[in-house]
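tool_call predict_complex ligand=pyridoxal-5'-phosphate
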Amino acid sequence: MLQKYNPRNADIQVWVGDRLYHRNEAKVSVFDSSVQGGDAIWEGLRVYKEGVFSLDLHLDRLFESAKALAFDHVPDREFIKAAIRDTLAVNGMTHDSHIRLTLTRGEKVTSGMDPRLNQKGSCLIVLAEWKPLVYDNDAGIRVITSTQRRNNPQYLDSKIHHSNLLNNILAKVQANFAGVDAAIMLDNNGFVAELNDTNLFMVKKGVLYTPFADACLHGITRGLVLDLADGLGIKVVERNLSLVDFYNADEVFATGTMGELTPVIEIDGRKIENKWKKSVRYGIQEAFHYFIPTHCEKL
Ligand SMILES: Cc1ncc(COP(=O)(O)O)c(C=O)c1O
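tool_result ok
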């Protein structure tokens, strides 16, 4: 699914550093670490009419990524929340919006890899746009398996939610050439890790399975789905899962802030049945929608 330019975003204001700029003026320096080395971290957040969904969980993950990468002068939680509040307010965004929250290591005194060249502190970007859910959750998505492996802790720990997304972008390029929506990325042992942009779940004989969060992002939606399923009395198993497990699943779905719960209807040409209204996903999705307001923070 290719997202389209939304004219409602033509004049949005974007937070960069310590204030708001019109989107045409919102820029980072060519000396910024994100330009020099993809040295930045990010979170994708959704704004519902009740507020920003799971804001503190996203900020916890952002701070953990910043600590792992040893960023200096990281703005505190209150500063980031105030920046998000001001950005949403100036753009009149009260619902149906998406925030791309980025924290770069900041501007360097001269080009180079060494973080000691970053002497101005990190740089916060709050890019809020009017954006509906990215996937069509009624139609579902078709996926292929990429030859591109998802990083595991041996190379680059997927628990760092960094902006260095080339692995995932190469997987998405393969999906594009194959004419499907997304690509499954395997871990270095050949087990399924996740899609290039979302986490993966499968259902077999009423049991909900998902890969260990070793080579996939420990998604906020993933965590919530596990909790909700448990609360609904569904047996939940985290374990190594191969492509054959997924090909023969009764249901497969993807989870993420960008699309909530999205059925996967085809993997490498194999159809997945997903019995809509009776599906395990349908029950969890209903619980998810019920819980959204209670997980939102009004700023
Ligand atoms: C690679 C990848 N997997 C999964 C997710 C879903 O995570 P969340 O549920 O926290 O949005 C994301 C979102 O950023 C992602 O980039």
